[in-house]
Amino acid sequence: MQSTYILGVSAFYHDSAAVLIRNGQIIAAAQEERFTRIKHDEAWPTQAIEFCLQEGNITVNELACVAFYDKPLLKFERLLETYIAYAPHGIKSFLKAMPIWLKEKLWTKDIIRKQLDYDGEVLFMEHHLSHAASAFFPSPFDNAAFLTLDGVGEWTTTSYGQGKGNTLSVMGDIHFPHSLGLLYSAITYYCGFRVNSGEYKLMGLAPYGEPKYVNIILDNLVDVKDDGSFRLNLEYFDFPVGLKMTNKKFDDLFGGKARKPEEDIERRHLDIARSIQEVTEEIVMRIAWTVKLETKADNLCLAGGVALNCVANGKLQNSNLFDNIWIQPAAGDAGGSVGAALAAWHIYYNEPRKVSSEKTDGMSGSYLGKQFSDNEIEEYCQAEGASYLRLNEHEIVHKVARLIKEGKVVGWFQGRMEFGPRALGNRSIIGDAQSCKMQKIMNEKIKFRESFRPFAPAVLAENVSEYFEIEGDSPYMLLVAPVSLDKRLDVNEEDAKKKGLDKRQVLRSTIPAVTHVDCSARVQTVNGRYNKIFYRLIKAYQEKSECSVIINTSFNVRGEPIVCTPQDAYECFLRTNMDYLVMENIILSKKEQPFAKVEALHEKIEGFVLD
Fold this sequence. Notes:
Elements: E1 5-10, E2 17-22, E3 25-31, H1 33-36, H2 46-56, E4 63-68, H3 72-86, H4 91-103, H5 108-116, E5 121-124, H6 127-136, E6 143-149, E7 156-164, E8 167-175, H7 180-190, H8 199-205, H9 214-221, E9 222-224, E10 230-232, H10 248-253, H11 267-295, E11 299-303, H12 310-318, E12 324-327, H13 333-348, H14 374-384, E13 389-390, H15 393-405, E14 410-413, E15 427-432, H16 438-446, E16 456-460, H17 464-467, E17 479-482, H18 493-496, E18 520-526, H19 532-545, E19 549-554, H20 566-574, E20 580-583, E21 586-589, H21 595-604
Parallel strand pairs: 1-4, 4-5, 6-11, 11-12, 14-20, 16-18
Antiparallel strand pairs: 1-2, 2-3, 6-7, 7-8, 9-10, 13-21, 14-15, 15-19, 16-19, 17-18, 20-21
């Protein structure tokens, strides 16, 4: 069979990415930020595309087509109609937006041809079709409902329907400016976090608060119907044409101006975070009920930025409304590149879709990025004058398991880089989940981030129900589940009364480093199908500690993308308080590295500003 290659691309908004598929199979995918080291890089993904073509061992001329993840002309139509509707309000935003549209975004097809030196076919998929395709086509289901929720594509902010075989049928949608993603982002902005980046921080902050503002939100900001459809009260928002997300009326509703990033987090911010999280969960559940009633489907697939809200996902999973739920691991705009390519293959070219008989998905564990050999890593270490030891896999696994048990923090760099926002055991920082000190150590001395942020557990799939109230797999760290009752500790009366951020001080379970203040955790199950060495590591740790859970957090410091290369990993290792770095079968101890190099890299983070 002759191979047909399709390049999928997302760019020019945030999280630019590229994917290469061969005869409908994903063979490479990466975000541009990993190469440029610019978090959420929106630029044309030159290096991600170069990597994908190299991984496929092809040239641009061998592509059947290039598929782009949205329709710029339709998006421009929405912008113009919105500005006209609000005129003259929004003139500053209009003048700021128009130059980049007139210079760049309106000419996306020309940019694609010029950047790639390509004169073949270029296809443009609607944004939410790309999300739906990224949700259904790689899923392990031949027949499933799909639900996509995000900020906004061209006009659509929410869509649902059904996928069968190689077809997608849209059954309902909601249009801009009414958007659950933008509502959540508005609260993110108000609480002092960066839009399109800090929403997960708001989600992590929510359990510290009380849902005191739920009725205020439902009575003033959003009108939610029984079927989950909703409308925003635009009197409180500035985002349709303004330069901010919210306005003075919004400030007055919540008792003060939006928090600035450097300001203290007040109790009301905790309560607002908790309240919008509960409203979001309620809307998602109501829409899911409608999707179930209209599709009668047993399976549900999710994509779009809101699908990264793993707390809402966990509630949906626990509802048993659907027999099975599958969430695209790169649910945001980066994953739109996957959807665009697969939509081109299955819908435009009408190629059939094959579902694995083993009911595995088409994302290969999301291990779709760049990798490096032992020899390449060793050559880098020698060039840097780094002190290292080369072991075999068995020795590495058991040595690192022992180090974790001893309370050491280890940078873990293995195999192909993950695609999507989560580190899943190939570009991870790992540690002891049983340590009551590890959460604080990692937040303050490794990640340089807010102390309220929880860490995720990686757990052997066969043991997951021993530690968490969840059935089945959660390979992509996109489901939050409660810690099992028999792993929780009794909390004394004094600790039980603690409020707000003081809740951090309370020991709640036998795996405290991965237990959030509401006794929940964002779970990653590890079964060894796609990541044998990570599975073997946790297995070795289990043998030494009688515990099947370790901490798994992304290998980066706050404000930077996850590491991509050995250089990225080594520099991150040196300028933090990690104890060891493992890259493939090569292990480095911090104490044995050249002192001058460590000092030089530590100077880089003097006065480090948290975003």
